[in-house]
């Protein structure tokens, strides 16, 4: 669907194309205004986005330890990380496991809660507030809070488990449980997903449900045949955003585990941080950051490509 | 010299803001020319007004006050100088100073220790101070502990003028020792009775679970640092030729195993989870939850302020068949390359390291001064608490330090610590942890030596 | 859609249980922040402290230098959000409404860079900041964040939905492009501006990575940095840490409760617009 503005714009372009490529007074005025309006942003974009991207590209092909000039080494950084650096693969493994568990579980959880919120329940607004609250408070504070919740000796979580006569795991003090602990903690912040899904649910026209009910569909069938297809674009969006966000997990590991125990929570971004700002391998850290980009890009593209098979857009629902 | 510096900075700002990052990196500045320094005397020692900044880490009030006094003394001695301090949190020190040097605005002097001296020397960012000392009649290295100077000198270069040192000792709670029916610790580093066996027995006798909940109320011992014990046991993280990991040696393995057993087998040391909840070794010690702990001389200052705590110090216990090891961390100050005037830096450095400053180290900060005659005077050795201060000083002949090769921090934090932590948690055997760390250490060393 | 009574009751129960589970850590944090160390360690856990230890809060304020950190966070966040709204709305206006040679090329270039994670650019940005001598300044905290690509993109989508006939009307009435921007686009985009504002508020208020890099002195610590540094530097005890965390949460929670509707629609809008 094209916006009206785009149509107008195109029409104008066509008109202009017919004439000499010289601007009329009005068009020149508009162009000047355009350059004027865009210049602060454009300058910022060039300096703080485009130039750093180009620089990062160059840095990733150098060995650069800040004090001496960057030394060009071609693709050696990438060669090293792909074939010689076990810690890189450890960081990929840890990050991917985190994403694989966190994203689907939090999607299901927030969808379920959004469905609940969408019912005519008493205190709906209060509940919505409570569910969303954890998603707004500073991650540093959240992390400090969960350090103590997870403390195997004094933490409230293991105290609770102890009520059943079981000694809980060592959580962030165990290389086996540290990653699950961070996943559990991330599920506490499902609020964003709930809000997105709730908005999507409220956008589904009531007449579709009415029609389905007339056709004899029960609650479950209505969910499968109406809610899910109608919600699928929102689901796709939420999943992609969540994948992109989850790949960039840093604060929790920085505050709570420092990547440990062992390297059990050495997420990719934490590994980038340590290479750059603890060991000062700027070139190598840049190469790692590009890997982050490629991984996120490829996974997003796969998700978008696969969405052709499961995302339904409005026009198609009647016919399907 | 000042004008050149300014114009470089302008150029940097310009290029950063106009041409952007790509260009920036291509012309990233290189640290100042190594030829500068003692050579261009006279010319730079002018009466022109000059501002000098000394770089430190740590922001505790007593530190800030001490540095303020040093700056004032510099300004008093040279009226044309405006001296000041710049103190940053310890965790950001390296990054802060590194980028300041790279940006062409280094501090005039900078604090250095076992962690930062190797790093900045590896970056070739520090001036050799020996030529300055040689050219200066007011200054001599002879007043310092010779071993500190000896350990700090590599290939004829010395980059740190020492100010203080922190011998590691055992701090112990005398009241808890009485309760457990134990005698005071010996005071001599050379004695044979205070060894790893008697240390373990002592720790076991001190570990008490009075309410029977299976969790000790008092732990015998807490070791926040494993490295001193590795050295006590005759091991080290690097091989003697510094070409590979040294953790696989029988001595190193035995020492690490013994440390791991303290917690895992004998239960005389708190777990990380308990430590996390209860605070630092010092907190646990002053709360009477831990009867012994290891730390440098910095423990004196804090513990002296605690009222009603009956404590003392003893030497580190000797491992079977090993000589005494006085593991220590020294610190001091150096001159980064590319300062506005290395000679003025040297003058500031001299004040920061002089006798009066050493007395402050002894009396206010609580570390052992680097000047031997100050350490052995009434300013340190003669102070009343703890009664056995001589233990710190007597460690001098046995002094050993942290490895000095440039990438030691990376070797520790990237390759060794994560693996050893697993061993100390009991998730991995010490052998497996060491075997996993070894190749990573070797790889960093290979990159360092270029093979 | 009507539910039967029993269904409603059970759903209500599930919702309440879920809410309780989510509130549980919060309540524990508040409770622990008012306990003595002995109480925090106790098993089974104590929920109501015998005597509320308000001194924990005083200790946290002193240890973490919270007052100053709050001020810094407020300044940095306010300037960043306002600046971002101005810069991004101008850029978005140009992209959405004004035709000038090169516009579409710029837009394409811009879209191409949008997917690149922040962490790719952080090392060059950091290099620029120290080369320009801006380490440890408000400028370093604020400036690079003003030119949010996401913000421009979001607002452009918003502006595109405002009928162009309104622009034409303004032009016919003798107005110029600035009038359109000021009196047509901006007033009609309050929802979009609010959405972007809140989105950036949360992001900037809570961020840790960038302040860790460019800020060194205590006097410039933002709230997350002050907390993180205190946590890492000198070990403080559970109850004091919890008091510090509570203090850090309060401003966001207050703003959230005041602007709840906008928060919700901010997330929903930035989520729905594609």
Automatic annotation (TrEMBL), chain A:
By its UniProt entry, which InterPro entries does this protein fall under? ABC_transporter_permease, MetI-like, MetI-like_sf
Q: Could you tell me the keywords of this UniProt record? A: Cell membrane, Membrane, Transmembrane, Transmembrane helix, Transport
What top-level branch of life does the organism fall under? Bacteria
Q: Which residues form the ABC transmembrane type-1 domain?
A: 92-303
**Matching PROSITE patterns, A to Z?**
ABC_TM1 (PS50928)
A GO CC term assigned to this protein in UniProt = plasma membrane
Q: Where are the transmembrane segments?
A: 32-59, 96-117, 129-149, 177-201, 222-247, 253-273, 285-304
Task: Provide the protein's localization.
Answer: Cell membrane
Q: Which Pfam families match?
A: BPD_transp_1 (PF00528)
Give the GO terms filed under biological process for this record. transmembrane transport
Q: Which Gene3D superfamilies match?
A: MetI-like
Q: Which membrane topology describes this protein?
A: Multi-pass membrane protein
**Would the keyword Manganese turn up in this protein's UniProt record?**
no
PANTHER family for this protein: ABC TRANSPORTER PERMEASE PROTEIN, ABC TRANSPORTER PERMEASE PROTEIN YESP-RELATED
Its family remark reads: Belongs to the binding-protein-dependent transport system permease family.
Q: What is this protein called?
A: Sugar ABC transporter permease
Species annotation: Caldilineaceae bacterium SB0675_bin_29
* Organism placement in taxonomy: Bacteria, Bacillati, Chloroflexota, Caldilineae, Caldilineales
From TrEMBL, chain C:
Main subcellular localisation: membrane
Chain ranges of the ABC transmembrane type-1 domain: 70-259
TM annotation in the entry: 66-93, 105-126, 138-155, 193-214, 234-259
Q: Name one GO biological process term.
A: transmembrane transport
Keyword field: Cell membrane, Membrane, Transmembrane, Transmembrane helix, Transport
Query: Any idea where this protein resides?
Result: Cell membrane
Q: Name one GO cellular component term.
A: plasma membrane
The organism's superkingdom is given as Bacteria
One Pfam family of this chain: BPD_transp_1
Q: Which Gene3D superfamilies match?
A: MetI-like
* Homology family: Belongs to the binding-protein-dependent transport system permease family.
Its protein name is Carbohydrate ABC transporter permease
Q: Which organism does this record belong to?
A: Caldilineaceae bacterium SB0675_bin_29
Upper lineage is:
Bacteria, Bacillati, Chloroflexota, Caldilineae, Caldilineales
């Amino acid at each position: 669907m094209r916006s009206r503005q785009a149509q107008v714009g195109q029409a104008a372009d066509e008109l202009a194309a017919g004439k000499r490529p010289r601007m009329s007074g009005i068009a020149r005025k508009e162009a000047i205004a355009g350059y004027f309006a865009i210049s602060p942003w454009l300058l910022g974009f060039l300096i703080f986005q485009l130039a750093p991207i180009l620089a990062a590209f160059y840095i990733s092909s150098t060995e650069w330890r800040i004090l001496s000039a960057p030394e060009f080494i071609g693709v050696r950084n990438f060669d090293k990380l792909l074939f010689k650096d076990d810690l890189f693969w450890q960081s990929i493994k840890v990050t991917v496991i985190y994403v694989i568990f966190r994203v689907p579980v939090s999607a299901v959880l927030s969808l379920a809660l959004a469905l609940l919120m969408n019912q005519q329940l008493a205190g709906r607004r209060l509940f919505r507030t409570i569910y969303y609250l954890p998603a707004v408070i500073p991650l540093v504070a959240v992390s400090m809070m969960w350090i103590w919740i997870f403390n195997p000796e004094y933490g409230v979580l293991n105290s609770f488990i102890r009520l059943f006569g079981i000694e809980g795991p060592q959580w962030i003090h165990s290389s086996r449980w540290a990653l699950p602990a961070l996943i559990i903690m991330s599920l506490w912040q499902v609020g964003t997903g709930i809000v997105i899904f709730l908005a999507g649910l409220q956008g589904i026209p009531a007449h579709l449900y009415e029609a389905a009910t007339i056709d004899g569909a029960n609650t479950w069938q209505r969910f499968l045949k109406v809610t899910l297809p109608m919600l699928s674009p929102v689901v796709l969006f939420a999943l992609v955003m969540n994948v992109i966000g989850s790949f960039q997990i840093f604060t929790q590991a920085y505050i709570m585990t420092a990547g440990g125990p062992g390297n059990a929570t050495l997420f990719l971004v934490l590994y980038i941080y340590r290479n750059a700002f603890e060991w000062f391998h700027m070139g190598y850290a840049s190469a790692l950051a590009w890997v982050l980009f490629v991984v996120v890009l490829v996974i997003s593209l796969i998700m978008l490509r696969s969405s052709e098979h499961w995302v339904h857009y409005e026009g198609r629902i009647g016919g399907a | 010299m000042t004008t050149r510096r300014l114009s470089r900075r302008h150029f940097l700002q310009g290029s950063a803001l106009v041409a952007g990052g790509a260009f920036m990196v291509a012309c990233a500045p290189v640290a100042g020319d190594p030829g500068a320094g003692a050579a261009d005397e006279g010319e730079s020692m002018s009466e022109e007004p000059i501002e000098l900044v000394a770089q430190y880490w740590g922001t505790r009030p007593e530190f800030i006050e001490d540095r303020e006094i040093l700056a004032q003394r510099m300004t008093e001695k040279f009226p044309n100088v405006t001296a000041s301090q710049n103190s940053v949190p310890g965790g950001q020190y390296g990054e802060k100073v590194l980028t300041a040097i790279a940006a062409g605005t280094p501090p005039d002097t900078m604090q250095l220790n076992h962690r930062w001296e190797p790093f900045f020397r590896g970056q070739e960012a520090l001036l050799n101070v020996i030529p300055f000392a040689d050219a200066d009649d007011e200054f001599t290295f002879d007043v310092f502990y010779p071993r500190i100077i000896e350990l700090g000198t590599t290939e004829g270069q010395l980059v740190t003028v020492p100010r203080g040192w922190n011998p590691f000792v055992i701090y112990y709670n005398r009241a808890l020792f009485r309760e457990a029916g134990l005698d005071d610790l010996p005071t001599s580093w050379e004695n044979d009775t205070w060894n790893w066996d008697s240390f373990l027995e002592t720790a076991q006798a001190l570990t008490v679970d009075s309410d029977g909940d299976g969790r000790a109320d008092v732990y015998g011992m807490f070791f926040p640092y494993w490295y001193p014990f590795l050295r006590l046991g005759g091991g080290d993280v690097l091989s003697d030729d510094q070409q590979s990991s040294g953790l696989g040696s029988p001595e190193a393995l035995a020492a690490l195993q013994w440390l791991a057993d303290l917690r895992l087998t004998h239960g005389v040391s708190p777990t990380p989870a308990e430590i996390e909840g209860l605070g630092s070794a010092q907190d646990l010690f002053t709360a009477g939850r831990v009867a012994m702990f290891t730390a440098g001389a910095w423990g004196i200052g804090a513990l002296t302020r605690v009222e009603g705590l009956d404590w003392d110090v003893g030497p580190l216990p000797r491992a079977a068949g090993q000589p005494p090891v006085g593991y220590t961390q020294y610190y001091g100050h150096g001159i980064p390359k590319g300062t506005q005037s290395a000679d003025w830096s040297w003058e500031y450095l001299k004040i920061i390291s002089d006798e009066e400053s050493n007395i402050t180290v002894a009396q206010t900060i609580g570390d052992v001064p680097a000047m031997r005659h100050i350490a052995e005077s009434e300013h340190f050795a003669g102070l009343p608490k703890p009664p056995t201060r001589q233990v710190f000083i007597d460690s001098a002949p046995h002094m050993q330090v942290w490895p000095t090769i440039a990438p030691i921090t990376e070797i520790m934090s990237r390759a060794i610590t994560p693996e050893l932590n697993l061993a100390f948690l009991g998730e991995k055997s010490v052998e497996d942890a060491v075997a996993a760390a070894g190749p990573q250490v070797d790889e960093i060393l290979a990159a360092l030596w270029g093979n | 859609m009507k539910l039967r009574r029993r269904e409603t009751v059970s759903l209500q129960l599930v919702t309440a249980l879920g809410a309780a589970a989510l509130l549980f850590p919060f309540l524990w944090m508040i409770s622990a922040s008012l306990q003595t160390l002995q109480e925090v360690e106790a098993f089974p856990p104590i929920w109501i402290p015998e005597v509320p230890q308000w001194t924990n809060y005083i200790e946290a304020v002193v240890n973490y230098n919270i007052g100053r950190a709050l001020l810094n966070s407020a300044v940095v966040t306010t300037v960043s959000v306002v600046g971002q709204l101005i810069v991004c709305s101008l850029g978005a206006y140009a992209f959405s409404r004004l035709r000038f040679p090169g516009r579409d090329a710029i837009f394409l270039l811009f879209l191409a860079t949008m997917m690149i994670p922040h962490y790719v650019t952080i090392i060059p940005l950091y290099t620029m900041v120290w080369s320009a001598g801006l380490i440890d300044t408000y400028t370093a905290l604020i400036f690079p964040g003003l030119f949010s690509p996401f913000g421009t993109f979001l607002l452009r989508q918003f502006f595109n939905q405002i009928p162009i006939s309104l622009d034409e009307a303004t032009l016919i009435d003798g107005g110029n492009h600035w009038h359109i921007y000021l009196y047509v686009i901006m007033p009609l985009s309050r929802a979009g501006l609010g959405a972007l504002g809140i989105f950036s508020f949360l992001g900037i208020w809570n961020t840790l990575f960038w302040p860790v890099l460019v800020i060194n002195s205590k006097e410039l610590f933002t709230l997350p940095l002050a907390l993180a540094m205190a946590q890492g530097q000198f070990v403080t005890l559970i109850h004091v840490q919890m008091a510090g965390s509570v203090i850090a949460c309060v401003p966001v929670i207050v703003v959230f409760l005041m602007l709840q509707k906008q928060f919700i629609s901010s997330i929903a809008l930035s989520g729905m617009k594609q």
